[in-house]
Amino acid sequence: MKLYYDPASKFSIKGYISLDTNVLAFCARDPQFFQEFITITENTDIVIDPIVRLEFLRGAYQEHTYNEKKQFIEYERFHIMEDHYLTYQQIYEKALFIGRILSHYGKPEMKLGDILILSRLASYQQKILFATFDKDFSCNLMDRSAVITVEIVTKQGMFSELETMQVLSFNHEEFLKFKNKLPQ
Amino acid sequence: MYMNKQKHIIQNENKLELKPMGKKSKKEVIEIIKKIQKKLEKHNQPSYQYPCFS
Is B36 in CB contact (< 8 Å) with chain A? Predict the structure, then answer.
């Protein structure tokens, strides 16, 4: 896999970065992608949402790669985010509003896992970047910091496909604006 | 211990705590990725697919 991006975006990718399950899965399946990704994010602390960890390992049983994936996430630059019921109280509260906002504006089918991931980003006051391939996260509640195009060569080695990875962050002001507009 | 943990979280509300998931180096992790790649090829799964969660 080859990554194409504006070299200047490396400077906007700093602070904390949380990874979506699909980004973590790409990292675990391709050494070149992993190496390039950790170079792009060298100015960040990489954080993993417990929901993402669960999603990531859940798929491993089917692939017979559970033990390897469990070892993979023991990388020294990966940090697990707080997994405590008090944190979840805040996350659930935000999730209710985010779910309502997305449904109200035409996305009632947003996956519960994704709403919880979004709610965690909303629960911290500091800016946390979020890297994802999932286009469902492109909404007014998120600001876009960078776009990275990934070239994926198919198994036969003849054809390639392009996937877009976005680096987003939660916009607290927009969230409040949309929250206040919700019907009572 | 549990109460201390609660107190700590309440005091640090909205602040991100960094707890490393392990101590594996980049080199070690790359070796693990290669093992995953091999297994995926063995089970005839394209390496670019990623799991969906609903």
Answer: yes
Domain that holds residue A160: 2-180
* Alpha-carbon gap, residue A151 to A153, rounded angstroms: 6
Residue pair A150/A165 in contact (Cβ under 8 Å)? The answer is: yes
Flag if A82 and B17 touch (Cβ within 8 Å).
yes
Judged by a CB distance cut-off of 8 A, whether residue B8 touches chain A is no
Q: End-to-end CA distance of chain A, in Å?
A: 48
Count structural domains, chain A. Answer: 1
Q: What is the pLDDT of residues A18-47, one digit of tens each?
A: 999 999 999 999 999 999 999 999 999 999
Q: What is the pTM of this model?
A: 0.86
Q: Which residues contact B36 (CB under 8 A, 6 or more apart)?
A: A28, A29, A65, A68, A69, A72
